Amino acid sequence: MKKMMIGVQLVIAVFLIAACNVNQADEAVEQNDNPEVANLVNREDGHTQDNNDARLNVEEEVADRIANLDEVEHAWVFVSAHNAFVAVNLKDTAANEIPSEVKEKVTKEVEEADLEGVEHVYVSSNPDFTDRMAEYGNRVKEGEPVEGLANEFNQVVDRIFPDKTT
Question: Which residue of 2, 81, 140, 154 shows the fewest CB atoms closer than 10 Å?
Fold first, then answer.
């Protein structure tokens, strides 16, 4: 009888320890505390993302510098992994595409900001893209966590820049 009670207590202890470890792993994924665990999580589109892909920063100072360019009305800059994504509203609304010299100026502003880890700059004046980036910027200013925007942001970026480097 005594051996049976010890055996039951051991089984209960094993289950409790296992349950605690599963809960800690879930929390690590949610909080991105553990890169080894977070790297196992897949985006909704099925692509495995490394821990850096989960990072999404709003770069308001760089956006302000870009908005100060003569050709630009307003700009939004988001950094994810090694990429900077810039949405611009041009003052010349008749232009269907961003002139190459304006893209070069915008890219130069991002490069001069020396944002950590940024290797590629993507610029667009696509109305859907600029509207979404403006919405995301407003949501962040209102206090919504950037992490909540990551999946949405990735879907928009994948659609606007299908050939982007990850």
Answer: 2
Q: How many CB atoms lie within 10 A of CB 156?
A: 22
Phi, psi dihedrals of residue 72, rounded to the nearest 5°:
-110, 130
Angle at which helix 100-113 crosses helix 60-67, to 10 degrees, equals: 140
Spatial neighbors of 9 by CB under 8 A, at least 6 apart, are none
Q: CB–CB of 110/84 below 8 Å? A: yes
The stretches in the chain having pLDDT less than 70 are 1-55, 148, 166
Question: Which neighbouring-strand residues pair with 136?
Answer: none
Spatial distance between the Cα atoms of 143 and 140, rounded to a whole number of angstroms: 5
Does the CA dihedral 116-150-67-90 come out positive or negative? Answer: positive
Estimate to the nearest angstrom the gap between the alpha carbon of 67 and the chain centroid. Answer: 22
* Residue 127: both structure tokens together: 């109305």
Dump pLDDT digits (tens) for 15-52.
Answer: 556 555 544 444 444 444 433 333 323 333 333 334 34
Strands of 67-164, DSSP E: 72-80, 83-90, 120-124
CATH classification of 51-160, choosing from 3.30.360, 3.40.50, 3.90.320, 3.30.70? 3.30.360
Give the residue carrying structure tokens 């094993």: 14
